[in-house]
């Protein structure tokens, strides 16, 4: 009996202890924002969100996925706001009725990164489509994200603009990794391959290996971010008041300034361009 | 003439394609000490387990005299101690028997005193010596106040001193009116303890006689062979 | 090699500075996994004991299934629980997705089979030793299962530890159902994954060292408790 009593007491104590220490701090007000891995990994949210939280008391919980997955997550109703960078996909999202309105927030740019040895001889160029054509002709190793992300969509668009039918010319030189920006950069670094990356992730990426910026500045490398409230008519549980508060702040003068203030090693990553 | 305790009616037990107990009928008397003897593989342990109800017969039945099954207990060759104190081992048995909380500790301590192990009551049962563990097993059986006590070679793994002590305790338990059914290979022990001998060979009971008669004039050649063979070892 | 030494140094510095963010992540990892292991034990131990001791049709198939489920891929469990807890799923209204509770649920699904399968083996082995004695004392099957769980408690701690090791080390399930939200559902393994994808390999490795150390300490503690217990209880 003594043994059983002791076992029961210990188990009960363990259970009570477990329940007593709450797993989450009681955050009464929070919204869920689905965004992209590149945005999260750039460190922008760590800089931006505390300002918003301090002002409004609303905690912003960011789930970072690829743009495609972020929008799918919102379609399922698992997010209140989306914050991604693929205008075509965003407009489709709204067209399907899942989003209320699209507002532009900020932009950054994509860059073509490649090995210092530059096997395709594209470094220093200003024309991205020319660079891509050269890489394809030379069959120089190229890593693609292949994950329905905004960056991936941009990459595919650029191949099309360059007049290249990827399916026809795909070969061992084109490595489709199906991964986020960071892992894809890791892969490119270890393979000494070319890769299209967003400047934000590149600036904070620490495992560059022999990679360096090859092509930048082409207007077509422009990467626009949009923010959308998930449609409460489709998903009644969406926190529309707090979600809208976040959107309003991010496009306000204060939010825009906070975005512009985010720098790594003195370099600004994102350029606010919300409509005044 | 003592009353019948239980009747074995055409008991049969098959296992693994073999017939281990073959059409056994017998009447075990109450208040007596019945010792089961026989060569290895004869089916002694199986027979006792059938009597105790640990296994079900393939045919036939075990019929207790009073219609209701009496309180029984069994002590095995190797004592199985629960991983708790000696006292708690006895209390466990009493809780299974439905004895109230209050009564459990008193009865357990009382019996431990009688077997001379009260000083080990709070010791973890598993750290005791083989002889002490078997005495705990016996105490655990005794504390249930059984009307029948089954024992399967209880001293086979013990040294002479512990064996003697166990035999003495069996005698005390029997003296209180408990019927004893025991399997042993030790003929000296059989002679010391038994009132009746049940001789089992090839799954059959070939002799069921008072102990003196059995050893003086065994009726079957098998029994005689057995006695002579075993005696050369004692 | 320099990455390794740099990581060791980083790990040491992080621990000494008691970086609050790191402490928060470690605390959450432990809370989630320990809670999951506790709940998984409440489920898995009785299931394991029941399958070990029970006699019912399909018992052998169930044993095979349990053993097979030990190899459930964490990412698949994460996906299944995600579909369950998503707003588009059956339990969406509970709003549990992307919370530590969701992570606990996923880990419970992952570890319960491990604890059940291992405890089944431990209890089954003990049952072979205890069965006859417990049946003789009149223990019902459920009572016997409970008694065996108590008696094998020190061996069972190995099964529970195996479950804890799996829980603390997995990343697939907690990543999908937790969302790796900074300050809310970010645990050691998801942080390591994040830092790796950011290319900060030294930091990722450093966190890895800390994670391994925690697991080793937990195992050492459990080992010490077991050693003490064996000496004390036999």
Q: What is the strand and helix layout of this fold?
A:
The complex is a heterotrimer of chains A (276), B (234) and C (234).
Chain A: H1 2-20, E1 30-36, H2 37-41, H3 44-56, E2 59-65, H4 67-75, E3 81-84, H5 87-95, E4 99-115, H6 128-138, E5 142-144, H7 150-161, H8 166-169, E6 174-176, H9 181-191, E7 194-198, H10 199-204, E8 211-215, E9 222-230, H11 240-251, H12 253-261, E10 263-264, E11 267-268, E12 271-272
Parallel strand pairs in A: 1-2, 1-3, 5-6, 5-7
Antiparallel strand pairs in A: 3-9, 4-7, 4-8, 4-9, 4-12, 10-11
Chain B: E1 4-15, E2 18-29, E3 33-37, H1 44-52, E4 59-64, E5 72-75, H2 86-96, H3 101-114, H4 130-142, E6 148-152, H5 160-175, E7 179-183, H6 187-193, E8 196-201, E9 204-210, H7 211-216, H8 221-231
Parallel strand pairs in B: 3-7, 3-8, 5-6, 6-7
Antiparallel strand pairs in B: 1-2, 1-4, 8-9
Helix pairs in contact in B: 2-3, 2-4, 4-5
Chain C: H1 2-17, H2 20-53, H3 59-69, H4 74-85, H5 100-136, H6 141-151, H7 153-169, H8 172-178, H9 188-197, H10 201-233
Helix pairs in contact in C: 1-10, 2-5, 2-6, 2-7, 3-5, 4-5, 4-8, 5-6, 5-7, 5-8, 7-10, 9-10
Verbal overview:
The complex is a heterotrimer of chains A (276), B (234) and C (234). Chain A is of the alpha/beta class. In chain A, 43% of the residues lie in helices and 24% in strands. Chain A has 12 helices and 12 strands. In chain A, strands 1, 2, 3, 4, 5, 6, 7, 8, 9 and 12 form a 10-stranded mixed sheet that branches. In chain A, strands 10-11 form a two-stranded antiparallel ribbon. In chain A, strand 10 (263-264) and strand 11 form a beta hairpin. The longest helix of chain A has 19 residues, at 2-20. The termini of chain A are far apart. Chain B is α/β, with parallel strands linked by helices and 234 residues long. Chain B contains 8 helices and 9 strands. In chain B, the strands form 2 sheets. In chain B, strands 5-6-7-3-8-9 form a 6-stranded mixed sheet, sandwiched between helices. In chain B, strands 2-1-4 form a 3-stranded antiparallel sheet, covered by helices on one side. The mean pLDDT of chain B is 91. With 234 residues, chain C is an all-alpha fold. Chain C is globular and about 65 Å long. The termini of chain C are far apart. The mean pLDDT of chain C is 92. Chain B binds chain C through residues 49, 52, 54, 72-74, 76, 80, 82-84, 92-93, 96-97, 124-127, 140, and chain C through 129-130, 132-139, 143, 147, 150-153, 232-234.
């Amino acid at each position: 009996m003594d043994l059983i009593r002791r076992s029961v007491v210990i188990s009960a104590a363990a259970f009570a202890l477990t329940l007593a220490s709450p797993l989450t701090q009681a955050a009464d007000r929070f919204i869920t924002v689905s965004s992209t891995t590149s945005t999260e990994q750039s460190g922008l949210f760590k800089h931006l969100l505390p300002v918003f939280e301090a002002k409004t008391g609303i905690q912003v919980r960011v789930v970072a996925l690829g743009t495609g997955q972020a929008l799918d997550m919102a379609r399922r109703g698992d997010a209140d706001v989306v914050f991604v960078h693929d205008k075509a996909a965003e407009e489709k999202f709204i067209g399907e009725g899942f989003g209320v309105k699209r507002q532009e927030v900020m932009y950054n740019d994509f860059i073509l990164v490649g090995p210092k040895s530059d096997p395709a001889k594209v470094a220093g160029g200003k024309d991205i489509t020319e660079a891509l054509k050269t890489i394809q002709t030379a069959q120089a190793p190229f890593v693609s994200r292949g994950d329905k992300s905004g960056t991936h969509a941009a990459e595919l668009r650029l191949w099309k603009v360059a007049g290249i039918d990827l399916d026809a010319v795909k070969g061992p030189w084109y490595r489709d990794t199906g991964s986020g920006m960071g892992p894809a950069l890791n892969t490119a670094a270890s393979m000494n391959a070319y890769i299209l990356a967003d400047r934000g992730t590149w600036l904070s990426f620490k495992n560059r290996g022999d990679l360096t910026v090859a092509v930048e500045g082409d207007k077509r490398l422009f990467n626009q971010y949009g923010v959308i409230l998930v449609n409460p008519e489709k998903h009644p549980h969406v926190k529309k008041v707090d979600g809208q508060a976040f959107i309003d702040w991010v496009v306000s003068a204060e939010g825009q300034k906070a975005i512009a203030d985010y720098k790594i090693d003195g370099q600004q990553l994102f350029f606010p361009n919300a409509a005044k | 003439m003592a009353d019948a305790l239980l009747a074995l009616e055409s008991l049969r037990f098959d296992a693994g394609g073999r017939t281990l107990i073959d059409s056994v009928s017998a009447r075990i008397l109450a208040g007596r000490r019945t010792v089961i003897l026989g060569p290895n593989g004869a089916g002694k342990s199986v027979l006792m387990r059938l009597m105790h109800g640990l296994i079900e017969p393939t045919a036939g039945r075990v019929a207790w005299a009073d219609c209701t099954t009496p309180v029984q207990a069994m002590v095995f060759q190797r004592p199985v101690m629960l991983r708790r104190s000696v006292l708690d081992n006895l209390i466990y048995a009493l809780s299974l028997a439905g004895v109230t909380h209050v009564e459990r500790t008193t009865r357990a301590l009382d019996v431990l005193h009688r077997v001379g192990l009260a000083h080990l009551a709070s010791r973890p049962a598993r750290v005791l010596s083989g002889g002490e563990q078997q005495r705990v097993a016996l105490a655990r059986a005794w504390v249930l106040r059984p009307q029948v006590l089954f024992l399967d070679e209880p001293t086979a793994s013990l040294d002479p001193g512990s064996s003697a002590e166990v035999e003495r305790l069996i005698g005390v338990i029997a003296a209180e009116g408990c019927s004893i059914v025991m399997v042993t290979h030790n003929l000296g022990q059989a002679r010391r303890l038994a009132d009746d001998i049940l001789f089992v060979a090839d799954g059959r009971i070939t002799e069921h006689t008072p102990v003196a008669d059995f050893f003086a004039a065994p009726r079957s050649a098998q029994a005689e062979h057995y006695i002579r063979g075993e005696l050369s070892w004692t | 090699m320099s990455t390794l030494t740099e990581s060791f140094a980083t790990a040491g510095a992080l621990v000494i500075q008691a970086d609050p963010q790191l402490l928060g992540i470690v605390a959450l990892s432990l809370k989630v996994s320990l809670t999951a292991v506790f709940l998984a034990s409440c489920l898995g131990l009785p299931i394991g004991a029941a399958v070990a001791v029970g006699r019912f049709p399909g018992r052998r198939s169930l044993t095979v299934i349990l053993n097979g489920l030990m190899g459930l891929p964490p990412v698949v469990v994460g996906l299944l629980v995600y579909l369950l807890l998503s707003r588009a799923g059956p339990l969406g209204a509970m709003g549990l997705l992307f919370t530590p509770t969701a992570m606990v649920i996923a880990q419970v699904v992952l570890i319960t089979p491990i604890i059940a399968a291992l405890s089944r083996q431990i209890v089954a082995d003990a049952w072979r030793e205890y069965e006859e004695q417990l049946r003789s004392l009149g223990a019902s099957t459920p009572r016997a299962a409970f008694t065996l769980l108590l008696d094998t408690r020190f061996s069972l701690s190995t099964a529970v530890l195996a479950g804890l090791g799996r829980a603390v080390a997995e990343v697939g399930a907690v990543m999908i159902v937790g969302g790796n939200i900074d300050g809310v559902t970010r645990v050691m393994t998801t942080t390591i994954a994040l830092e790796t994808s950011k290319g900060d390999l030294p930091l990722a490795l450093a966190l890895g060292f800390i994670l391994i150390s925690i697991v080793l300490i937990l195992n050492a503690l459990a080992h010490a408790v077991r050693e003490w217990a064996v000496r004390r209880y036999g």
